[in-house]
Amino acid sequence: MFIAMNRFKVIKGEEEAFEKVWLSRDTHLQNVPGFIEFHLLRGPESEDHTLYSSHSVWANQNAFTAWTQSDAFRAAHRSAGDNKPLYLGHPQFEGFEVLQTLAAAASREARPAAE
Predict the structure, then answer these.
(1) Tag placement on the chain: N or C end, fewer CB within 10 Å?
(2) Within a domain: 62
(3) Cα(107)–Cα(83) distance, integer angstroms
């Protein structure tokens, strides 16, 4: 698996506008090959910003890279520049190859035996 994250430093007082943009947009991810799940995370507050992160899980890095070169990616990010006044600086991308995943016992019991 591969996890792709973007960290956003959202200017204090702009949190509601940022969340509205993200929670109301069409991500175009649901039918993308290799896409597993997406999370929008709100983190700690600092003096001048609140930290947010987008966190998407992919079957592998190739699936993520293919998405970044797709029409679905361009559609999902079409108006991203319109929201620049909400951030301090540019979003910071971080990509991670998953080396280990652990799940709670109840989660393991609910999974098919083939996993």
Answers:
(1) C
(2) yes
(3) 38
What CATH number does the domain containing 103 carry?
3.30.70.100
- Sign, Cα dihedral of 90, 4, 23, 104: negative
Question: Residue 104's domain spans which residues?
Answer: 2-110
Output the pTM of the full model: 0.79
pLDDT in tens, 74-83: 877 666 556 6
How many structural domains comprise the chain? 1
The strands making up 35-45's β-sheet, listed across from edge to edge, are 35-45, 49-58, 2-11, 92-97
pLDDT tens column, 20-59? 988 988 777 888 999 999 999 999 999 999 999 999 999 9
d(CA 56, CA 86) in angstroms, rounded, equals 21
Q: What is the DSSP string of 9-47?
A: EEETT-HHHHHHHHHHS----TTSTTEEEEEEEEEEE-S
Distance CA 50, CA 65 (A): 28
